[in-house]
Write a structure and sequence with these properties.
This protein has helices at residues 2-14, 16-34, 42-77, 79-95, 107-110, 121-159. It is 80% helix and 0% strand. The relative contact order is 0.09. α1 (2-14) packs across α3 (42-77), α2 (16-34) packs across α3 and α3 (42-77) runs antiparallel to α4. The protein is extended. It is an all-alpha fold and 161 residues long.
């Protein structure tokens, strides 16, 4: 029975349709989190109160399928899977409304978009190129930050109360 369940989970986890479904849910979740704002209409609040727990449940289902397919050791070797597990736990805690003191951790749910990079090799290649060019831009950026900091202090002394 366990071998049949694991085989089914492996077929489901590696199916392109499953990966595309999860990718779509990631982007819908990002949109749902991005439209939240102060003083939002009741319709958005109602929609998010339905959608966000649903997305969390779908991500938990993905976690269970992959955990069953790979087993705990192989699942947690991959850093993307470990991050997914952390984000799913945060989502479940948020859906249960026990993250009152941990509301800053909701921002981690937006980082789920980076787990979509696993499915988008072209985007991953572009980010790798950007990371390589960051070495040459970083000293200039640091100099710019120092200049802005100095000018802000100067502005406070000149125009402050």
């Amino acid at each position: 029975m366990a071998a049949a369940l694991r085989s089914l989970a492996q077929r489901l986890a590696t199916a392109p349709g499953f990966e595309h479904l999860i990718l779509g849910v990631i982007f819908l979740n990002t949109i749902a989190l991005a439209i939240e704002h102060e003083g939002q209409p009741l319709a958005i609040t109602t929609l998010n109160s339905i959608c966000l727990p649903l997305f969390s449940a779908l991500f938990a289902l993905e976690l269970l399928v992959k955990l069953t397919a790979l087993g705990p050791v192989l699942y947690f070797i991959d850093a993307f899977n470990a991050f997914d597990c952390f984000v799913v736990i945060i989502g479940i805690l948020d859906a249960m409304s026990v993250t009152a003191g941990l509301s800053a951790l909701r921002g981690f749910r937006l980082l789920r978009v980076f787990t979509a990079l696993r499915s988008l090799p072209t985007m991953r290649k572009q980010l790798a190129i950007m990371a390589k060019t960051l070495d040459s831009v970083l000293p200039f950026f640091m100099l710019l930050l120092v200049f802005i900091f100095i000018m802000s202090i100067l502005g406070m002394h000149l125009f402050g109360d």
